[in-house]
Amino acid sequence: MSETSTRDTPVRESAGQPGEPPDSTDHPCNPMTRKHVEQYWEEGYTIVREVFSPHEIEQLSTACDRWKFVGQLLGRTWRRQNTVIWVDREEKESEVDTIVRGMQWPSYHDAVMDHYRTDPRLLMILEPLIGNNIKQVINQLHWKKPGSRVTWPLHRDVRSRQPVEDFRDLYPSWVQTGIAIDPHRSENGAMKVVPGSHLDFAHDPRNKSLYNVPHYEDDPRIRDMVLNPGDVALWNAYTVHGGGYNTTEFQDRRLFINGFVKADKCDRGEWAWRDGRTCHLHGKQALIQFDEVDTIAEAFYAGDRNRRETITD
Ligand SMILES: O=C(O)CCC(=O)C(=O)O
User: Fold this and answer.
1) Cβ contacts of 301 within 8 Å, gap of 6 or more
2) Of 116, 223, 230, 301, which residue is most buried, by most CB within 10 angstroms?
């Protein structure tokens, strides 16, 4: 087992030593403070407030709408290489409702989404945790349409970092980030998190009993990740999280998720930053979660090929 064990302190070259602030939080413009870094390692999550301004969120919101309309036009789950749009159909009062519930890798085709996936403020947030040579594995949008049955039962993201051998020392080298586009509240299906759950068990990525953990619903530590538009939430691959339904009538709940990994610890993903310099997306797509990326070049509807395109994270 290459991972650290329960309550081991991970090696964090760039995060400074206990008692001194990590170097890269020193700059006054850095939204990531030492307190955030400490909370991330101690509780398995943190929230950096007001990273993106209202006009930036407006841009992202418009981009999300464009992709939602594409999903509605497609009407069914659709993929082209790493880009996938997950579309569900829900029966509602004898009508069938089309629910665009998620999408991976809009950034290949959308300059706005590409800009924000490598925004310098995201690097400032990540650098004290995983340094500045970073690959990206997740680039994903989640919608929770008001009144829909969309939910993410409680889980740990280690379940999706497959195959295990391509992700080495996942615990200290992986960070998931979520940019809130809408207000996230309990009633519209805010994500829930269980602080400290990243340290409940040894970090064994092959231990499937860690993956899907609905029983944490009764854990007294569970709380809502209450976010405002522009806030950035961070969580660890071993932190239990997930979320309930959007029971509101009109308030969507959109989250833009970007998952990053220390480049030298991972054999998959697109480069995001090399030595702190932004890497834009161009040319051949990298192997990420779609194993046939090199052999299936054309777009297709999942249903036409009898493929089960289950939503991953
Ligand atoms: O969108 C959500 O609320 C859930 C996100 C999540 O659980 C994940 O990305 O792993």
Assistant:
1) 74, 76, 77, 78
2) 116
